[in-house]
Amino acid sequence: MTTAAHTQMSNTPQGWLSRAESWLDQRGKGAWIAAMVVSFIFVWPIGLALLAYMIWSKRMFSKSCSRHNQSGFTGDQHYARRHGFRSSGNTAFDSYKAETLRRLMSEQDAFEAFLERLRAAKDKSEFDQFMDDRAEAASQSRVDQDDMDDAMDDGELLDEPKKSDK
Fold it and tell me: What is the DSSP string of 16-39?
């Protein structure tokens, strides 16, 4: 899945990580620092990951973590701002951009569905080829077994020498 697939805005409920991030953002930088300290105390790798996230997202050095929420954005609008859906101020361009992104997302979904059907067809053809090869090998071994049975019935054993009448 590509990063473009993650930029889709929807009205579905947010995951627990997104809810936790929003909750900490509403309480400010102190909540982030407290969460980091507590996580360092109990499970240090999570604390380290939280510190790295705070530095990467520039939460450590901003004036306040809740600056996005103070501007009156909802959860989807906050998500949209973080992932490149900022308003340009030109409503015609913004609607064109939203429509283009929606179209590209639907094309990407259609292409991924096509690739899935293509993989399924390839897997089916490979399985059918395997089953045909297996059936052919089974019939060949049956023919070889029948030949061996006929040879034994005729008394033509290779391991025993022929008996002579004296």
Answer: HHHHHHHHHHHH-HHHHHHHHHHH
| Lookup: tokens for 123 | 């897997």
Q: pLDDT for 6-39, tens place per residue?
A: 444 445 556 877 888 888 888 888 888 888 888 8
Question: Hunting for tokens 């090998």 — which residue is that?
Answer: 137
Burial of 50 (0-12, 13-18, 19+ CB in 10 A): buried
| Alpha-carbon gap, residue 92 to 124, rounded angstroms | 48
User: How far is the C-alpha of 79 from the C-alpha of 10, rounded, in Å?
Assistant: 10
Q: Which helix (H) or strand (E) covers residue 105, if one does? A: helix 91-153
Which tokens is 45 given?
A: 């790798």
Residue type, 30: G
Which of 50, 14, 45 shows the shortest CA–CA distance to 35?
50
- Apex CA 109: angle with CA 80 and CA 98, to 5°? 35
Question: Exposed e or buried b for every residue in 95-123, given b needs 16+ CB within 10 A?
Answer: eebeeebeeeeeeeeeeeeeeeeeeeeee
Residues 78-105: pLDDT tens digits? 555 555 567 788 899 999 999 999 999 9
